[in-house]
Amino acid sequence: MDLKLSQCFIAVDDHDKALAFYRDVLGLEVRNDVGFEGMRWVTVGSPLQPDVEIVLEPPAADPSTSPADKLAMAELLAKGVLRGVIFRTGDCDALFERVRASGADVIQEPMDQPYGVRDCAFRDPAGNLLRFNEPRRG
């Protein structure tokens, strides 16, 4: 079976703040910026993975989502309980210093995990949990 990840989605409440983080701090490239019916979707990705994209979308972007569900999603996003993604890096400590210097909310400083990676964690400007890991050598 020929199956690959193409896109994943992260809910954001302010696309300009999200762009400042994902593009300017993490160094992802902007691949698309689309407005439609009062909503906005921004697609970013690593230059090292041209076939994988992260879509920064409004919470509950599906047009069939009820007003109550949209409110619930916005509240969950504001609480920081929605999951983000895990990024792989070649230098977890250097990445940590760069992201921390941007003022991002630090959740976990770099540490060696028993499952074979050194990792750290931050929240993006919308409150999504992002982890960054580096495979441990040896």
Salient structural properties:
single chain; 138 residues; alpha/beta; 4-stranded mixed sheet; 3 helices; 25% helix; globular
* Helix content percent band: 10-25%
Average pLDDT rating: 93
The profile of the biggest β sheet is: 4 strands, mixed
In DSSP terms, counting alpha (H) and pi (I) runs of 4 or more, how many helices?
Answer: 3
User: How large is the share of residues in beta strands?
Assistant: 35-45%
Count of β-strands: 8
Strand order of the biggest β-sheet: 1-4-3-2
Written description of the protein model:
- The protein is of the alpha/beta class and 138 residues long.
- It has three helices and eight strands; from the N terminus they run E-H-E-E-E-H-E-H-E-E-E.
- The protein has helices at residues 15-25, 67-79, 92-101, and strands spanning 7-11, 29-36, 39-45, 53-57, 83-88, 105-112, 117-123, 129-135.
- It has a four-stranded mixed sheet, with helices on one face. The protein has a four-stranded mixed sheet with strand order 5-8-7-6, with helices on one face.
- A hairpin with a 7-residue loop joins strand 3 and strand 4.
- It starts with 6 loop residues before the first strand and ends with a strand.
